[in-house]
Each structure stands twice: as structure tokens, then as C-alpha cells.
Amino acid sequence: KILIANTPMDADKIKVFGSKIKVDTVTKIAELEEAEKQKMKEKVEKIAKHGCNVFINRQLIYNYPEQLFSMKGIMAIEHADFEGVERLSLVTGGDIASTFDCPGETKLGYCDLIEEIMIGEDRLLKFSGVAVGEACTIVLRGATQTILDEAERSLHDALCVIQQTVKDQRSINGGGAAEMLMADAVSKLAARTPGKEAIAIEAFSRALRALPNIIADNGGFDSSDLVAQLRAKHTEGDHNYGLDMVNGKIEDMTKLGITESYRVKKQVLTAAAEAAEMIVRV
């Protein structure tokens, strides 16, 4: 049971301007310190009444309150950064508390296991079995900051594609199969269209066919040969065929399980068409 908080765990300070306190004996100083300790005991008691066995605070937890938590069998974790606290609240299902007067109104978070792990030279706390079972942390490591930045961008792009696929689970064949099929359909439309509009439509068809060429070039294969074979297959009606960049040949994408998100592909084509239209207008 986890209580997540953003609260100062030292003596509560009240700003009073223009006032002075004079103490004439050591006993009075001891009484002041004892009063501060008593206030901290009361605060820890309030936290313990929530029924938690783990207390995570965004701010520092000093030695004395840490001792009090230890005596009550509560693990105290301090100085969690703001994003970390927000994410813990989300994945464990708990609220972020700042006051502790009403234990029944604060929702505790839950997880099965908290353990300290080492990644390289860094010590990290790992929360397993959280309330939101799909939550996870991805640790990226690289030799240079440039490599790390590139890895982060690539991972972000991949997660965005997955997010869009979850929202709209429709998919299309990858490997240039969809582009070739669309190019054939656009070419047929150009053949039926009279006037100069047919030229623009045919240009759009050529642009679609350029995408399989780019895929083959990026794979290090002869794009002219592969795209010619692919176009012949689609002319025969085998519209599931695309480019297999592992073996450098054309193959049935359905059998290989190579698919792309329909929503992402639609957005890419729409954005490209709008950009081309803007350039033509200028």
C-alpha cells in the first residue's frame, strides 16, 4: 500500500517579519526542539493512520521522520521528481496527498513488489505488479548523447504508431503493397479523366510508386528490378504482394505478417498531398 505525497517533512515554518525570540537557558532551547519533534511525531502518526506500508514523498525526508517511519514499519522514499510522482500516481492508482487530516478521503496506490536494481552505475527503484498492468519503464542507453536522442526519437515514433493502431485497429499490407495498389487505382482514374487534370492525377500515381523504390533503395537492393517485379504481380491481380527486405525479393505480405496502421498511412498521404498542393499554389 503506497501513499504518495508532496509535503515538507521538516519543521513547519511560518514567516513572521519583525519579531525576535530570546532564549535565556539551554532548557528553553531543548523545549523548542522537543516541540518540533512532537509536531513531526503527530504528522507521522497522521500518515501512518492511512494504513500504508510505503510512503513516497516528492520532497526530502529528514533523519528524524525517517526513524519514525522505520519504527512503524513504513518504507520511506524521498525526493521523487515531479514527473516520477505524477507517473507513480497514475500507474499505482493512488492520489498525491499534501494534507493528512482525513485518511478516508485519500486513495492509496498498490503494487506487488518494490526492489532496488542496478543499471550500469545507477541505482533505480523498480515497481512491479502495479494497478495499471500495462505500465512499464523503458531504459535507453548509448555511447553518446546523439545516439540516445536518436533512439528516443525512434522509440517515440514507434509508440505513436502503436497508439494510433490501438485507436483504429484497421491495418493494410506493408512493404509497398498498399502504395502500388493505390498507384494502380489512380492510374486507372487518370486514364478515364479528360483534359489536363489527367496529367496531375498521373503525377500523383508516379509519386505513390516512388515509395516502393525508396523502400528497396534503403534496403540496399536493386529498386528498378524489384519494383518492376512488384508492378507485374499487381497487374496480374496479386495485390497482397510487397517487398521482402530481409531476403531481397517480392513476397505475399499477408503470409509474412507485414502490415501497417491504416490510420497512420492515411495521415501520411493526406499530409503529403496537402504539402504538394500548397507548393503548387505558391
From TrEMBL:
GO cellular component: chaperonin-containing T-complex
Family: Belongs to the TCP-1 chaperonin family.
Organism: Schmidtea mediterranea
UniProt keywords, alphabetically: ATP-binding, Chaperone, Cytoplasm, Nucleotide-binding
Protein name (database record): CCT-beta
GO molecular function, one term: ATP-dependent protein folding chaperone
Keyword Chaperone: yes
Subcellular location: Cytoplasm
Alphabetical list of Pfam families matching this protein: Cpn60_TCP1 (PF00118)
Location (main, coarse): cytoplasm
UniProt KW Acetylation keyword: no
Top-rank lineage group of the source organism: Eukaryota
